[in-house]
Amino acid sequence: MNIPLKKAALLVALLFLFMHGAGVASAQSGPSLLEQRLCRTWKFDYLTQDGKTVKADKSLADFVIIISLDHTIKQGMYPDGLIGGKWKVDEKEMILDINDETTSQQYRMKIFSVTTDELVLQDPAAASPSFLHYRAE
Questions:
Q1: Listed residue (58, 57, 75) closest to 66, CA to CA
Q2: Per-residue b or e along 68-106, where b marks 16 or more CB atoms closer than 10 Å to that residue's CB
Q3: Which of 27, 42, 123, 124 is at a distance of 20 to 30 A from 50, taking alpha carbons?
Q4: What is the extent of the structural domain holding 120?
């Protein structure tokens, strides 16, 4: 499927609605356990907000976040609509900061939980708690 870059950027923006950026860098010699768990391909599964669950529909079924150990990130519609950027994590606060290089957007997400199979991010700026659930690919 060939999705134009602007459409992919719009979908990313919709997923990260109400997010804003800032960041705290973590200086370490090697990847931490948290960084190792984050670094994989995550596919959007569903959103929970106000006790309601919204599953990924056809338009979001191919949305992924690919987090790499070299602190680069790709997100968007796989395989043709991926947007590159950089990421960093504040392990003390459990905050994931994403700098989107294509759209010049910064996103700050609270890492609610991360396992080898699931990543749950929370938008700390949202008026009501919303959680983005991803599954490992």
A1: 75
A2: eeebebbbbbbeebbbebebbbbeeeebbbbbbebeebb
A3: 42
A4: 5-21+36-136
User: Which of 83, 81, 79, 112 lies closest to 95 in space, CA to CA?
Assistant: 112
What CATH number did the domain enclosing 93 receive? 2.40.128.280
SS3 137: coil
Rounded to an integer, what distance in angstroms lies between the CA atom of residue 12 and that of residue 7?
9
Distance CA 83, CA 103 (A): 8
Place of tokens 């931490």: 32
pLDDT score, position 25: 42
Kindly state whether residue 132 falls inside one of the protein's structural domains: yes
Tokens of 84: 């590159």
| Tens of pLDDT, residues 78-128 | 878 899 999 999 999 999 999 999 888 998 999 999 999 999 999 888 888
Looking at per-residue confidence, does 19 or 115 come out higher? 115
